[in-house]
Specification:
Elements: H1 2-109, H2 113-134
Helix pairs in contact: 1-2
């Protein structure tokens, strides 16, 4: 009976030992998996931290860009205000040049000396106006 009880005890102890060894192996696997998860979380955290730092720099540069755009907008408004005055002045200068050319032509083609003298006076006046517009 001793041999039988010992054999039965050994048979019952074998599954218990196997279960105990299996649970130890599983706990080792769980620890390794946990360490790998922690390492991956640290890598993920530092990667995200770098991306957020880059985004912060981009947002700061956008603030500076907004200031540049507002300055350019102000300059554009000033140019738009001054442009019609310059256009009027250039248009008037072009008309005066045209009248001066026509006056010179008439001054050279008229037969009457008195009319030619009047056209020369007009031409001189147009030249003075042209000088004022060119300033």
């Amino acid at each position: 009976m001793n041999k039988e009880t010992t054999a039965e005890a050994a048979q019952q102890a074998a599954p218990a030992a196997a279960a105990n060894a299996t649970s130890r192996d599983m706990s080792k696997v769980a620890v390794i998996v946990s360490l790998l998860v922690v390492v991956l979380l640290v890598i993920f955290f530092f990667g995200m931290n770098r991306n957020i730092a880059g985004l912060t720099e981009e947002v700061k540069s956008l603030g500076a860009l907004r200031q540049d755009v507002s300055q350019l907008d102000g300059r554009m408004v000033k140019m738009e205000e001054g442009l019609p005055l310059q256009m009027k002045r250039l248009l008037a200068l072009d008309m005066v040049n045209e009248m001066a050319m026509k006056s010179a032509y008439l001054g050279n083609t008229l037969d009457d000396q008195a009319l030619r003298d009047k056209m020369q006076t007009i031409l001189q006046s147009l030249k003075e106006v042209r000088g004022e517009l060119e300033k």
